[in-house]
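Lecture 7, part 2: worked example. A protein chain together with guanosine-5'-monophosphate.
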Amino acid sequence: MEKGKLFVISGPSGAGKGTICNELIKQSNVALSVSMTTRPPRRGEIEGQSYYFVTEERFVEEIGRDGFLEHASIFGNYYGTPKQAVYEYLEKGRDVILEIDVQGAMQVRRSCPDAIFIFVLPPDLDELAFRMTGRGTESPEQMSRRLEQACVEIARVVDYNYFIVNDKLQDAVESILAIIRAEHSRVTDTIVSRIAAYGMASGCSEN
Ligand code: 5GP
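Predicted complex, written out as structure tokens:
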């Protein structure tokens, strides 16, 4: 069976990554990795679904047992991708999405060079500020810190394979589904060696 593919989605806080990822799991068979964090839950967030909410002690313990594919400190809290669940999905042929920040994405690039990196951009910075205010969960200081960080993060789009602008939710979702489909049609070494095994690789070379 062919292994699943790993898709990494990043973008500034407020760009709408979370909403896009929720739609992706509804509209396709991709699995969304559930991160572990030391950040306290926001209203409406569900343990084991939004995040695994843990103490700093528990998080550090997990780092010690090499349980993370990547981890980072963001806005004073730790966030990490539990390794085992991701590998299990991939082994079973399921595509996996990681919704993580740019620091984490660069760690994944080193450990999983075949991963595909997608950056979600907000339509513009005013819209980003508006979306962050709309969430109503951040204080003015936290918001300006997140907005400043957003500008720094947007500059990292150059490190990604694809970018999408989250202007309309369904368009953004469909763009990512198209990227996923396209990546499954990529000519890879596996495909080339399979074709070679059928003796077809050099079929036209004598003409
Ligand atoms: P929030 O606190 O708003 O849920 O997330 C803050 C930032 O942490 C977002 O940019 C989100 O993508 C990122 N994030 C969430 N989970 C992880 C993770 O497991 N690893 C890393 N590196 N970043 C994460």
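The chain is about 45% helix and 20% strand. Residues 169-184 form the longest helix (16 residues). Keep this in mind for problem set question 3.
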